[in-house]
Each structure stands twice: as structure tokens, then as C-alpha cells.
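notes to self, project folder thing:

trying the whole complex as one job this time. last attempt i did each chain seperately and stitching them together was a nightmare. two parts in total, labels are on each line so i dont mix them up again. if this works i'll redo the older ones the same way
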Amino acid sequence: MSADVAATVGITVHQYLAVALTLFSIGFAGVVSSRHLIRTLMCVELMLNAVNLVFVSMNNYVNPSDVSGQVFAIFILTISAAEAAVGLAIVLALFKHTASVDVDDFKALKW
Amino acid sequence: MFETLLFWIFATVSISAAFGVILAPSILYSALCLIIVFFSISAFFIMNNADFLGTAQLLVYGVGLTVVILFGIMFTGDAPLADRAGKTKRAIIATLSSLSVAAVLYLAVQGFNIPGMEASPEWISTLQTVGSTGAIGELIFSKYVLPFELASLLLLGAMVGAILLSQKTFTPDDPGLTFSVKDGRLSPALKAEWRDNVGFPANPSTHSTNHPPEEETHS
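result (full assembly):
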């Protein structure tokens, strides 16, 4: 990384990647382990944010003059907003059915 | 030096708040921890010369999305879930699988040596004066205009779908919707309570019987 670039002096892209990796893994652990539906949604948002961080930091590292990575991050942001709205609507519909947000309670299709 | 310090502060804060999201006893604390994560990621964006994206992150995630999530929590209540067996099993599975995901991701980026590129002097002066917003807008409306329009369609569809899903009321004797839950959480008494208090669509037959008496008195 050149010393001319305004920010990120002294911080390499690898450090950002490490933070993003950690956040992604934590979010994955939450998706796997969480029993609360809304917490699962939150962990999905966490994973999406980690991916966004990778996009932005790699964009700043590989070619700072081209903001394609940031545009991609904006699309991810849009899609995750849509995902959260639909996901919460589904959670509320499920809650109307069973009065529960526990993932273990939704076993109507379980063999 | 200052940036390095900021980086480590925000890295520590975001990772510990992320642990808070998955480990907090109450779902409400998880949501508050999630706000902290969003804010520190916004700081990372700004440290990476993405000023517009940092602000958008604050507005969309830090405020908008968390408000939606808090609404969801308000609707469903933040009562802790009933204790079930297999808690440690779940934790072990989650730890192992997330560690293996982390290992795979680490191996994927470990040997990467893409050469970095320096920012052009014009770009640096743009960043120092007007920021990256104009460049992002130019790119969105030229090269990425089709994904942009598709994203707007997706948002429209998601909005309509979310409204439909959350408006979907069901009558308790609708055969398509009254699947039985085995441990009896949707008891008949609960159904009747909802029908009276929460507001299922009033039975059309009762509606029509409510009105005629008034008309009879008029005539």
C-alpha cells in the first residue's frame, strides 16, 4: 500500500480482511446456533456487513480510483434491506400462527 | 499512527459487539450490540475512503434496519425462550462449523498477492474536496444502471410482499392455514382470544347481519 493514499496509512488490507473474516465467522456461528428467529436474521445482517467490509477495503487496495467495489456494497445494502423487511414479515406471520419465535417450534414439515 | 489506533479500537469494539449479538441473554441486548457493530463498520468504511458508503451504512443499517428489527422484537416480545435440551451440543456444532468456515476463508486469502494500486492524484484531490459521492453516482447510472433498476424492482417487490405477508390474517377454520402444531401452542382458546382481541377479519356473515337492523329502522 502506498504511503500517498490518504487514509489506511500503516494498516494493510489484510487487517481489514481479518476483521471481516472474524465478523463473518461470528455471524455464521450465530446463524447455526441461534434458536431465536430474529437473532438469526441479525446474524445474517452481520455476515452481509462483513462482506461489505471486504468489498470496500479491497476496492481501496486494488484500485482506489475506481469505486466499483463501493457500488457493489451499495447493492448489497439494498438487497439486505429488502431481505430484512421480508424476513421480519415472515417472522411476524409465523408468530401469528404459533405465538412463538423459537426455531425448534416450526417443525410442521419435519419428517 | 492515529489511523492505526482508530483501527484497533474499532476492530476490538466491533468484534466484541458481534460476540454480544450472538451471546447476549436478551434479544434486545443483541439488537443494541448490532447497532454498535454497524457503527464501527461505518467507521471502517470512512477509513477506507468510502465516505458516502459510510454515511449510507449509518442511515440504512445503523438507523433504518435496527428500527425494523426493534419493531419485530416489540411485536414478538423479548421473553427468553424456554430451555431445551441440547444447548451445549448446539454451541459445539456452531463453534466447530464457524471455525472451519474461518479456516477455509483464511486459506482462500492467505496466499493472495494482488498488487495494490496507488490512487491517481486527481482522485486524491477529488476525495479531499467533494468526496466519492459523484463518482459513485456516475458509475451507478452508467455502467451499473441495469442492476440499479433491477434493485429498485426488487425493493418494490419486497415491499409489496412484506405488506402482504404481515397483513395476511387467517380465519381459524380456514383449512389451508390451520396446520396443527404438535405441542399444542396454538390452542383453541388462544385462537378464540385472538379472534376477539387481535382482530381477524370479521366474519362476513356476522358483518352482514350487523347492518340490516339499522336499515330496517330507517325504512
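what i see at first glance: Confidence is low (pLDDT under 50) at residues 175-184, 202-219 of chain B.
need to look closer tmrw
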